[in-house]
Write a structure and sequence with these properties.
The complex is a heterodimer.
Chain A: E1 3-5, E2 10-14, E3 19-21, E4 24-26, E5 33-39, E6 46-52, E7 60-61, E8 64-69, E9 74-79, E10 88-96, E11 100-103, E12 107-112
Parallel strand pairs in A: 2-12
Antiparallel strand pairs in A: 1-4, 3-9, 5-6, 5-10, 7-8, 8-9, 10-11, 10-12
Chain B: E1 4-7, E2 10-13, E3 19-25, E4 32-38, E5 44-51, E6 57-58, E7 67-73, E8 76-81, E9 90-97, E10 103-105, E11 109-113
Parallel strand pairs in B: 2-11
Antiparallel strand pairs in B: 1-3, 3-8, 4-5, 4-9, 5-6, 7-8, 9-10, 9-11
The chains are: A mainly beta, B mainly beta.
Chain lengths: 113, 114
């Protein structure tokens, strides 16, 4: 069975600091995709970054980077220079089969001024 | 970028009535859409996969007769909660699948059943 685990229910970080949100996964499929989404209090799911299992390099998108360690089955999200607007729920997800997404429990990130 | 809309954004209905939620892909065609449910402070749970022109595929434990899904066109999928009860109160989110299997999410619909 495929499973995503986010072990940090909540994180508190000072503004401008970098933050790492943990995500581990479990799958027996050789081909899979890993996603990070941000969900602010409004409820919308905002796509942040994607990493394919065969990608040789870690994905980066602006202030977001994904620390992909395949052997350890981890796909941590790193946010550099955090901003107050980064406060939100963050979900790690894995593509299951051809299309379904399985989500982790989420991490609530709070950026303190 | 790809945009997915949902309507309504909020709905309050009385117990026993039915509610229809629409999910539209605005600038692309989506043969596959997904419906999720999210309870407060919890993660998204996939309810069903909606395929254009065919029956939806429901996840284990989801009542297909209660949550009716219709994907009549390449840009529209609807979820109807029939005979709604207070325990159906939740945040319902749809997503549309893109060409590279990415998913674009709608803004969600908050359903409250009184």
């Amino acid at each position: 069975a495929q499973k995503i685990t986010q072990t940090q229910p909540g994180m508190f970080v000072q503004e401008k600091e970098a933050v790492t949100l943990d995500c581990t996964y479990d799958t027996s499929d050789p081909s899979y995709g890993l996603f990070w989404y941000k969900q602010p209090s409004s409820g919308e799911m905002i796509f942040l970054i994607y990493q394919g299992s065969y990608d040789q390099q870690n994905a980066t998108e602006g202030r977001y980077s994904l620390n992909f360690q395949k052997a350890r089955k981890s796909a941590n999200l790193v946010i550099s220079a955090s901003q107050l607007g980064d406060s939100a729920m963050y979900f790690c997800a894995m593509r299951r089969g051809a299309q379904k997404l399985v989500f982790g429990q989420g991490t609530r990130l709070t950026i303190n001024p | 970028g790809a945009v997915v809309s949902q309507h309504p954004s909020r709905v309050i209905c009385k117990s026993g009535t039915s509610v229809k939620i629409e999910c539209r892909s605005l600038d692309f065609q989506a043969t596959t859409m997904f419906w999720y449910r999210q309870f407060p402070k919890q993660s998204l749970m996939l309810m069903a996969t909606s395929n254009e022109g065919s029956k939806a595929t429901y996840e284990q434990g989801v009542e297909k007769d209660k949550f009716l899904i219709n994907h009549a066109s390449l840009t529209l999928s609807t979820l109807t909660v029939t005979s709604a009860h207070p325990e159906d109160s939740s945040f319902y989110i749809c997503s549309a699948r893109g060409l590279n299997y990415e998913q674009y999410f709608g803004p969600g619909t908050r359903l409250t059943v009184t």
